[in-house]
Amino acid sequence: MESVKTTQMDKAATPNGKVGAVVVVGGGIAGMQAALDVANSGFRVYLVEKNPSIGGNMAQLDKTFPTNDCSTCMISPKLIEVAKHPNIKILSYSEIEEITGTPGNFKVKIKRKARYVDETICTGCGTCVDNCPVQYRPHFEQSAQMRVDAQGKEESKSTHGTGE
Ligand code: SF4
User: Are 3 and 110 in contact (CB under 8 A)?
Assistant: First the structure.
């Protein structure tokens, strides 16, 4: 577990001379857009997301109502923009632990959950996933899929709506 502390007056974070930093909680489409708007106005943004990756529920959709637009086509450019923005630091798999202070001088304590890999050298090759003996219900697929359990039997997992 790693703790990250920041304050609204994050003077070292803004190379363009603007003073202040903002914490955006939630890395879904609304949080990403909020982070981009604030970052584009020149402030340092800490985007805190409790899940292992940003994108939220929209990344799980095929189409959006009422325009029937392709979700991926809408969200993918924003994912890239957020990831590459020099004023945005993504703190995924992290949660707010404590907020203290007053308007203009907040102090936010963020808990970063352990990933058990070194993010700076992981290439995302997936080899560890193929060889991992631990099985769990995948969050992204809403746990509704066939998978092989520890005994090698195929079973249907349908826990939609249970929050697991
Ligand atoms: S095996 Fe691949 S995906 Fe797993 S931690 Fe190592 S580099 Fe990352």
Answer: yes
Note the pTM of the prediction, 2 decimals: 0.74
User: Do residues 64 and 23 touch, judged by C-beta distance below 8 A?
Assistant: no
Nearest CA to ligand 1 atom 7: 122
Q: How far is the CA of 76 from the centre of ligand 1 (A)?
A: 23
CA of 79 to the centre of ligand 1 (A): 22
> In this predicted model, what pLDDT tens digit does every residue of 48-75 receive, in sequence order?
999 989 999 998 889 998 999 999 999 9
CA 129 to centroid of ligand 1, rounded, Å: 8
Specify the higher pLDDT residue, 4 or 104: 104
Q: How far apart are the first and last CA of the chain?
A: 22
Q: How is the chain split into domains, by residue range?
A: 2-114
- Quick one: pLDDT band at residue 19, thresholds 50, 70, 90? low
Q: Which CATH superfamily is domain 2-114 in?
A: FAD/NAD(P)-binding domain (3.50.50.60)
Choose among 102, 80, 82: nearest CA to 90: 82
Give the pocket of ligand 1 (CB within 6 Å). 117, 122-128
